[in-house]
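Incident log, support desk, overnight shift.

02:14 A customer reports that sequence design results differ from what the structure should imply. Their input is reproduced verbatim below. On-call engineer (initials T.W.) acknowledged and began investigating.
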């Protein structure tokens, strides 16, 4: 059986991913690196409460068959630009560095639709720079997931995001063809797609939102 590492297991997508992996017979151990506990008592879980800004200090424990990085924040939650970059860029890149160092063959990381290292939009630029830097490491398989707006209930209040979700939900039936990638997507779909790709592979390194939804369906039918 395989061992998986999850970064961000206390978040929306990471929490769902954790539960899916705990129910998956292909996995015997799930290692968590987090600032706070996932508060789950399960024989598969090995939990390390650490400062993720200093993840390299725990390289000796960072060993697995796959690494899932679901780390992310928002400008409203993290208004300081430097702290924001340390979270959305620094942590995923450090994880990639540790994958290379410890010969972990598969790295899966959540980015965002519109990520572009040359973008004038701060959020997109940070995500794009993260993608660029992650891909510079010598990892056998790296997959970058670029979801559209993630539809799901979060603990923190995000009024603007809720309005956007309702709007995208209303127009979803009309978003076909090239517009499909702009449809909102659920964290369940992202988690399912990541697990499917980790086990079955994919022909592309960057996976857009509409493709994530298709892969999630593939995972559902493979169960």
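02:41 Re-run completed on a clean worker. Output:
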């Amino acid at each position: 059986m395989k061992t998986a590492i999850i970064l961000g297991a206390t978040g929306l997508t990471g929490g769902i991913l954790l539960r899916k992996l705990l129910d998956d017979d292909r996995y015997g151990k799930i290692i968590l690196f987090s600032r706070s506990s996932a508060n789950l008592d399960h024989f598969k879980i090995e939990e390390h409460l650490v400062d993720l800004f200093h993840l390299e200090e725990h390289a000796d424990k960072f060993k697995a068959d796959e690494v899932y990085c679901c780390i992310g924040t928002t400008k409203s939650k993290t208004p300081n630009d430097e702290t924001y970059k340390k979270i959305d860029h620094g942590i995923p890149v450090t994880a990639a560095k540790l994958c290379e160092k410890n010969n972990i063959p598969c790295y899966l990381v959540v980015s965002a639709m519109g990520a572009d290292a040359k973008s004038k939009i701060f959020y997109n630029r940070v995500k794009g720079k993260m993608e660029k830097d992650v891909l510079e490491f010598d990892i056998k398989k790296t997959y970058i997931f670029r979801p559209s707006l993630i539809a799901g209930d979060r603990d923190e209040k995000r009024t603007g995001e809720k309005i956007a979700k309702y709007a995208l939900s209303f127009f979803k039936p009309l978003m076909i063809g090239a517009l499909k990638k702009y449809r909102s997507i659920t964290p369940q779909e992202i988690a399912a797609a990541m697990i499917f790709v980790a086990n079955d592979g994919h022909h592309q390194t960057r996976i857009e939102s509409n493709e994530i939804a298709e892969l999630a369906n593939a995972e559902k039918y493979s169960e």
